[in-house]
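Researcher: Structure prediction, please.
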Amino acid sequence: SIGGKRFSRYFYPGQHNNAFRFHVAANYDALVKAAATAVEPANLQTGKVAQLVNLGTTVPQVKLDLRYASVNNCFGKPLYPVAKAYASTEVATALTQVARTLAQDGYGLLIWEAYRPWSASKLASDLLPAANKNMLASPSQGDIHNTGLAVDVSLYDLKTGAPLNMISDYDEISPRQYSKYPGGTTEQRNLRAYLQKVMHQHGFTISAMEWWHFTLGDGKGYSHLNLPLASLS
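Model: Predicted structure follows.
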């Protein structure tokens, strides 16, 4: 109610930790098997091969909420069977610096997604309804997460351990996902800007489409990996 007038608020799908869901019509189990046996295009296998390390054990005070290893994601199905967060050694080093900077202000790093095997990206593409296929890179192009150079992150309170109330939830398919979305509260916009500033200070490129998505450098010249997460110790 403003100035004696009442306005209706529009709630985008996915708000309040209520994950947006695609209507997945295809046979999930069949697609999982097909993705696991699919052959990655040869052109994606060229370039520098990142050495993957466990972010959960190398980045100080990091918390993991790996949505794609659970049903709490836009598909309502896991993309891979184990909850592990791996990335390149360079990313791990940069995130360690990020975590130390955040800690000075009482914040910790929350990781939603890191390295994603090519087969998991293919499964994600296959699960998308036909009308939404353009929302993800095609398996023939590969996803930047396949290189080990990209992470999806947020913030949590070091004192309480609770995730912070950011401007949107992860994978909230709405205008709130954009890095320059002007809405939300002043605190939410400040937290988003703070996270982006700290990530940028330590070498990460900010995505214009998703405020939570960051790539170390530009990600060019790296091979798209297809190592199953279950095989990484």
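Model: The mean pLDDT is 92.
Researcher: Thanks, that helps.
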